[in-house]
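#onboarding

Welcome to the new folks! Below is a worked example of what a typical request in this channel looks like: someone posts a single protein sequence, and someone else replies with the predicted structure as tokens. Don't worry about understanding the tokens yet, we'll cover that in week two.

Example request:
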Amino acid sequence: MAAPLIYSSSPCKLNTTVMAATDLRLSANIASQVYQHSGNLFPSVAVLSGAIPRIAFKTPIKDALTVIGTGLLALTNLDFMLAKFSNSTFIKATTSVHTKWNASSGCAYISGWSIGQGGICLADVDVVPLSTDGTTHPLTRSDNNAMLTLSSEPILHTLGPLSVNGSVITGLNQLSVAMNHTLDVRVSDGDLYPRNAALLAGSPTITGEHLDPATLLTTLSLIGVNISANVIAYWKSFDVTTQIVSTANSVSAAIASGRIVAENIDAGQNNPAKSAIHVIPLSSTATHPLVTSIAATAPST
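Example response:
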């Protein structure tokens, strides 16, 4: 009996950019059902009505915002691979033996990102491959492929401060962004697979944890405040030369309208007090309420 083959993750290619990827996941999302009739004790027929495959992976936040942005990215090419390990050298093979799935149509979006003190900020990317005719599976498999080569080594980011109406409130310990996209993936006419998709709406939110609730409440009170100037969340970069956290080349997300409130203030036994933060971004136009920058300078304090 042959030894089982071992595969690992690899970079992902969206259009022409090969991106670093971790936690790669393919969900087949097969739609099937059984039919039980005539008083039978068990189902006697199983039918397959199609599938809506999805791909998800994590990638550094700067590259995600550069390639995808805060909306929906139309795809004319998608490649993702399972990297094969050699049974003789027991490391990832350097020859063209890797398995690849390709799609010529689809869309990708950032569902959110989260970071705590000392971590590396990774964005969660969701990809929806689309069929060209509704009857052909959106993903085509091929074997014996060369490994994808990264377009560039990613610049990494970590947690930064939060500025509220022009003032930095120090003490931020964790920050999460949820894009909350409403995506319609359309299957019709008895098709097996989706041929179209649309971004119908979004309701982004930012939540965090703050370690100085008394100072935080001096600004926000127990009822919160309107965003009169802006709220800016920062993610500091790791300097590409020293690999030490730097305020230069930071990622930022600015909210010009909305409300920020403090929630769930906790002071447990033998634990320092902390408070949850909730930012509600608003936009009265088609402009996304999070205006991001990949070349910001984070406040030093």
